Amino acid sequence: MLKKLFGKKKEAPTSINVHSPLTGRLLDLEEVPDPVFSQKMMGDGIAVEPSEGKVISPVNGEIIQVFPTKHAVGIKAENGAELLIHIGLETVSMNGEGFEAHVSEGKKVKVGDPLVTFDINLVKEKAKSTITPVIITNGDDFEAIEKAETGDVTAGESQVMTVSAK
Fold it and tell me: Entry's SUPFAM superfamilies (predicted)?
């Protein structure tokens, strides 16, 4: 009855394109100088060495986690892929200093929406690296994660991964 009134439920896409959340240089995850990421302990993905301190949403979806220290954000994409954007390496020890979150859990986001801004010079000074891994934490639920070639990327414009459902 309600379906007749409101139409069919919109089907989730089976495949999504993941755009770069930062402007900078795209790296292979294996190049990240932290074994938690380079050995894919948290999942497969890519990394970006940023040239500016602005992180935008790489997908359409919903914010599922904003770390209290604002150095990491979790997003559930429309096809169910869960992405973790971890700004810099060993940035948790900064306790949020230099980071400003623009979203909270439960917020719907579209590609290009601002997530976090950060003081890139402060991160360079106080953390191990500005390299930002972007991980698909539930990659085992998907058929394939295809990654773009390394090189320069622009936030919200450059496609860095395609995640395809089984």
Answer: Duplicated hybrid motif
The model's pLDDT over 137-161, given as tens digits with 9 standing for 90+, comes to 999 999 999 999 999 999 999 999 9
Here the tokens at position 106 are 């439960």
pTM (predicted TM-score)? 0.92
Q: Domains (ranges, CATH) in the chain?
A: 21-165 (2.70.70.10)
Report yes or no: 160 and 26 within 8 Å, Cβ to Cβ: yes
Q: Is 19 a catalytic residue?
A: no
DSSP one-letter code for 153: E
Question: Residue 86 and residue 92: Cα distance in Å, rounded?
Answer: 10
Strand-strand pairing, 24-28 and 99-101: unpaired
* Catalytic residue (one of 19, 71, 86, 102): 86
